[in-house]
Write a structure and sequence with these properties.
By secondary structure, the protein is mostly beta strands. It has two domains: 88 residues, Immunoglobulin-like (Sandwich); 665 residues, TonB-dependent receptor, beta-barrel domain (Maltoporin, Chain A, Beta Barrel). It is built from five helices and 46 strands. It comes from Chryseobacterium shigense. This is Outer membrane receptor proteins, mostly Fe transport.
C-alpha cells in the first residue's frame, strides 16, 4: 500500500511540474481604466491560434501555454488593438498594456461573441443574454428554459434531484416554495447576464444544501449615466393579478448605485384532495383561495475609494401578506364505515416583514488580481401569523372556534473574509466565516368559551433557538498542461446548537464539526469537446420550523409539529459530464443521501399528526442530456431529457420505501416571425413521467405553453403574451406509503395562466449596475 501511495505522489508531482508556463497581464485604456471582454490570443505563424483568454472586469488575463515563441494579440469587437512577438521560456508577467479602446460599439456585437452554454471546471454557465430569454421574460421563465432545471409553481429543482438553493450575485434568497417563485416572477430577464448551475459547489460556498446552487448573475455594463426599466404585468388565473417593477441605475467614476422597486398581487385558487386509507381513514377535501401580495425595495451603493479599493452597502426591505381562506370537509371512517363528519372554515393571515443589510469592503492587493474581501451581513424575518378556524362536527351541537397566534422573530448575523490569490503556479482561495442564528417563536392556542378566547397553555409554547456556525475553507485551482485542469477544496464547519421549549420544559444542546471536500478534474480536448468529473459532500441542516416542537392545528384533530432532536442529513454527489460545441451536454450522476429527514404522517385514535423525523437513506443515479440547436434560420430549439433511478431505505418501520425508474423531458421552441426578429412565437412543453422517491409515488405531470413576444420602438418597448399550462396538465397526483395506511393526494394550484407584460427601457442603456457578490447563504433556513 505504501508503494502505491508513493507511485501516485510521484505521478502527481510530474503532472504539476509540467512544461507549460504562464503569462499574466492587465489591459488598460488611455484613461487607465480596465478593459474587460478583450480577447488575448497567442498565435503561431500569424494566424494559428494556440491559446486565448478573455479579460475580466479588472482587465486581467492569465494564459497557460507550452514554452515557445508566439505573437501576443489583443482583440476587442473584432478589432486588433495590440500585437507583439514574445518568447515564453519561463513564467512571464507583463507590464500593463495600454491600448486605444474602441468606443461606442453596440452591445449586440459583444452578445454575439458569447457562447450560449459554457462549461467551467466547477459549474455550467447558461448565458441568458444570448438566449431567447434575453428580454421581456421573468426570472421564473428564464430558469424554466435553463438546462437541467425544473420550475413549478412552488419549487425550483435540478431534474432528478431535490430542490436547490437560489442565489442572486452570490447572495442566497431567503425564500422557498411559492414565495420563492413569486419573487423570481418579480425580476426581469433584461437584468440577467447568466445563470450558473453549480451541482457540486466548491469549498468557497456554504456546505448547506443537498443538491447544489443556482447563482443568477445580473448584468454589469460599462458606461456612465442613468438608465431605468419600467415593467408591468397583467396576470389572469381564476382571479386577476398584477406585478409592477421599476429599476433605476446610476454610475459615475466613483459611484455605482441602483434602486429597484417591486409590487405584486397574485390571488389564486387551490384544490387539495388528501385521503388517508387504512383501517382508520380520513377523507379530506380543501377548497382554498390564496392571496400573496406585497411590495419591496432594494438599494445598492458602491463607492470607489481609490484604484485598488471600494466599499459598499446593499439593503433590501420587503413587506408582504400571505393569506388563505380555506373550506375543509373531512370524513372519518373505521373499516370503511363513516364515524363522523367535520367541516372547518379557516382564515390564515400572515404579514411578513424582512430586512437584509450587507456591508462590504474589497481591496485589490496587486495588478495580478489578488483580492481581499470583507463583509458583514444582517438579516431579520418577522412573520406574525393569525389563524382563525371554526369547526362543525356532526356528533356534537355547536361550533368549535379556535385561534392560533404566532409571533416569530428570525435573525441572522454573519461576518466573513475571503482571499483570492492567483499565483504563477495556480490560484488559491481561502476564507473564514462566522454566523449566529437567533429564533424566538411565541405560539398561542386559544379556544372560544363563554364569549371570549381563552389561551390553552398546554397547546401554547415559547421556543428559543440559537445556533453558531464557524467555517474555514481552502481551494486550489491549477492548469495541468495544455488540456487538463484541476480544482480541489476542503471546507470545515463547526456548529453549536441550543434549543429550548418553555412549555415542554425541554432543552436540546448539540455540537458537531464536519469536513466537506470537493474535487474537480477537466479535460478540454479542443474548442468543441470538454470532459469533466467532480465530487462534493454537502449537509442539509433543518430549518427553524422543523425544529420547533409546537403544534400548529388546522382543526381540533389535525396538527403538524417540529422535532427539536432532528439532526442534519448528508449528501455525496459525483458527476461525469461532456460538452460538445457548447450546444450539446451529457451528465451522468450519482448521489447518496444519508440520514435524510422529512414529514411523516401518523394516525392515532382519530388524531392526525405530521412530524419531522430522520429516517431516509436514498441512492440516485441518472443521465441528463441537453441540446440547443438552430433547426432553421427562424426556428430555435432547446430539448432536455433526464432519466434517473431512485432507491430508498427507511430506518423506521412505519415508512414503506419506494424504488423505481423515471424520465423527464422538456422541449422549448422559438420561431422568428419576421426578418427584423422583432416578433417571436414560443411553444414549450414539458412532461414528467411517473416516478418514485422516498416513500412517495408521483404521477404524470405535463405542461403546454405558448405565446408571442414583440419588440417595438427600437427595442425600448417589449410586449409579451403567454398562456401557460393550456390543458391543466400540472395537476399533482400521487401516493405516500406507510405500513398501516396509504395517503393519496390530488392537488391543483391554478397553474393555467395568461400573462401580458409590457417592459419599457429608458435612459442610457450602457450603464453599470452594482454586481457585488455578497454571501448570506444561511437565509433559506429562516422559514
Amino acid at each position: 500500500m505504501r508503494n502505491i501511495i508513493l507511485v501516485v505522489l510521484i505521478l502527481c508531482s510530474q503532472i504539476f511540474l509540467s512544461q507549460n508556463v504562464q503569462i499574466t497581464g492587465r489591459i488598460l485604456n488611455n484613461e487607465n481604466s480596465p478593459v474587460d471582454f478583450a480577447e488575448v490570443l497567442l498565435l503561431k505563424n500569424d494566424s494559428v491560434k494556440i491559446r486565448s483568454e478573455v479579460t475580466d472586469a479588472n482587465g486581467l488575463f492569465t494564459i497557460d501555454a507550452p514554452k515557445d515563441s508566439y505573437i501576443l494579440q489583443v482583440k476587442r469587437f473584432k478589432g486588433i488593438l495590440y500585437s507583439k512577438k514574445i518568447k515564453l521560456e519561463n513564467n512571464l508577467r507583463l507590464n500593463d498594456l495600454r491600448i486605444e479602446d474602441i468606443k461606442q460599439i453596440k452591445e449586440v456585437i459583444l452578445e454575439k461573441k458569447k457562447k450560449l452554454i459554457e462549461k467551467k471546471i466547477d459549474r455550467t454557465v447558461f448565458n441568458v443574454e444570448n438566449s431567447i430569454f434575453s428580454s421581456g421574460a421573468d426570472l421564473a421563465q428564464v430558469l424554466s428554459g435553463t438546462p437541467m432545471l425544473s420550475v413549478s409553481d412552488n419549487s425550483v429543482s435540478i431534474v432528478g434531484k431535490s430542490g436547490v438553493a437560489v442565489m442572486v450575485n452570490d447572495k442566497l434568497l431567503n425564500l422557498s416554495g411559492t414565495d420563492l417563485i413569486n419573487y423570481l416572477r418579480s425580476l426581469r430577464s433584461d437584468d440577467v447576464s447568466r445563470v450558473e448551475i453549480i451541482t457540486t459547489p466548491p469549498a468557497k460556498y456554504e456546505a448547506q444544501g443537498n443538491s447544489g446552487i443556482l447563482n443568477i448573475i445580473l448584468k454589469k455594463n460599462t458606461k456612465l449615466g442613468w438608465n431605468g426599466i419600467l415593467s408591468s404585468s397583467y396576470i389572469q388565473t381564476t382571479y386577476v393579478g398584477n406585478a409592477n417593477n421599476l429599476t433605476l441605475n446610476y454610475n459615475s467614476n466613483k459611484i455605482t448605485s441602483s434602486l429597484r422597486l417591486r409590487q405584486f398581487e397574485r390571488p389564486s385558487k387551490a384544490v387539495e384532495l388528501i385521503d388517508i386509507i387504512g383501517t382508520n381513514s380520513i377523507l379530506s377535501a380543501d377548497k382554498r383561495k390564496d392571496q400573496f401580495k406585497g411590495a419591496g425595495a432594494n438599494f445598492s451603493f458602491d463607492y470607489k475609494l481609490n484604484q485598488n479599493s471600494n466599499i459598499g452597502v446593499i439593503y433590501d426591505i420587503s413587506k408582504s401578506h400571505s393569506d388563505m381562506d380555506i373550506f375543509n370537509r373531512s370524513i372519518y371512517q373505521t373499516n370503511g364505515i363513516q364515524d363522523s363528519l367535520l367541516t372547518t372554515s379557516s382564515e390564515h393571515r400572515k404579514p411578513i416583514l424582512t430586512h437584509s443589510l450587507n456591508v462590504y469592503y474589497d481591496y485589490k492587493i496587486d495588478s495580478l488580481g489578488k483580492k481581499l474581501s470583507i463583509a458583514g451581513n444582517y438579516f431579520s424575518n418577522s412573520p406574525d401569523a393569525e389563524v382563525n378556524f371554526q369547526t362543525i362536527a356532526d356528533y356534537t351541537p355547536g361550533i368549535q372556534k379556535i385561534r392560533n397566534l404566532s409571533n416569530l422573530d428570525y435573525q441572522i448575523v454573519s461576518g466573513q473574509a475571503d482571499l483570492y490569490l492567483p499565483f504563477k503556479w495556480g490560484t488559491l482561495e481561502t476564507g473564514l466565516k462566522f454566523t449566529h442564528f437567533m429564533n424566538d417563536s411565541n405560539i398561542k392556542y386559544l379556544s372560544f368559551k363563554n364569549d371570549q378566547y381563552i389561551m390553552d397553555t398546554g397547546r401554547s409554547n415559547y421556543f428559543e433557538y440559537k445556533e453558531n456556525n464557524a467555517a474555514a475553507y481552502v481551494s486550489v485551482y491549477k492548469s495541468l498542461g495544455e488540456k487538463w485542469s484541476a480544482k480541489a477544496g476542503l471546507r470545515y464547519e463547526y456548529s453549536t446548537i441550543d434549543g429550548y421549549s418553555e412549555t415542554a420544559g425541554e432543552r436540546n444542546k448539540n455540537e458537531y464539526g464536519r469536513l466537506f471536500p470537493s474535487a474537480y478534474l477537466e479535460y478540454k480536448a479542443n474548442e468543441n469537446n470538454t470532459l469533466s468529473v467532480n465530487y462534493s459532500k454537502r449537509i442539509n441542516r433543518p430549518n427553524f420550523t422543523a425544529l420547533n416542537p409546537f403544534r400548529w392545528y388546522s382543526n381540533p384533530y389535525s396538527f403538524y409539529t417540529g422535532n427539536p432532536f432532528l439532526s442534519p442529513s448528508y449528501n455525496h454527489n459525483v458527476e461525469l459530464s461532456y460538452l460538445y460545441k457548447n450546444r450539446f451536454s451529457v451528465t451522468v450522476y450519482g448521489q447518496k443521501l444519508i440520514n435524510g429527514y422529512g414529514r411523516i404522517t401518523s394516525l392515532t385514535q382519530g388524531i392526525k399528526e405530521v412530524n419531522y423525523k430522520n429516517y431516509l437513506t436514498q441512492y440516485d443515479a441518472g443521465l441528463n442530456a441537453s441540446l440547443y440547436t438552430n433547426v432553421t434560420k427562424w426556428w430555435e430549439n432547446n430539448t432536455n431529457i433526464v432519466s434517473f433511478y431512485s432507491e430508498s431505505e427507511s430506518s423506521i418501520p412505519e415508512v414503506v420505501p419506494q424504488n423505481g425508474v423515471s424520465m423527464y423531458y422538456t422541449i422549448n421552441n422559438t420561431f422568428t416571425i419576421n426578418k427584423e426578429k422583432s416578433v417571436l412565437f414560443l411553444l414549450n412543453f414539458y412532461h414528467y413521467l411517473p416516478n418514485k422517491q422516498g416513500n412517495t409515488y408521483i404521477g404524470n405531470i405535463s405542461n403546454l405553453s405558448a405565446g408571442f413576444r414583440f419588440s417595438l420602438m427600437e427595442k425600448k418597448l417589449r410586449v409579451n403574451m403567454m398562456v401557460e399550462d393550456i390543458f391543466r396538465g400540472t395537476q399533482s397526483k400521487g401516493k405516500i406509503f406507510y405500513d398501516e395506511f396509504t395517503q393519496f393526494y390530488n392537488n391543483y394550484y391554478d397553474t393555467r395562466r395568461f400573462t401580458l407584460n409590457l417592459t419599457y427601457s429608458f435612459g442610457n442603456k450602457n450603464i453599470k449596475t452594482n454586481n457585488k457578490q455578497i454571501q448570506l447563504e444561511e437565509k433559506n433556513r429562516a422559514n
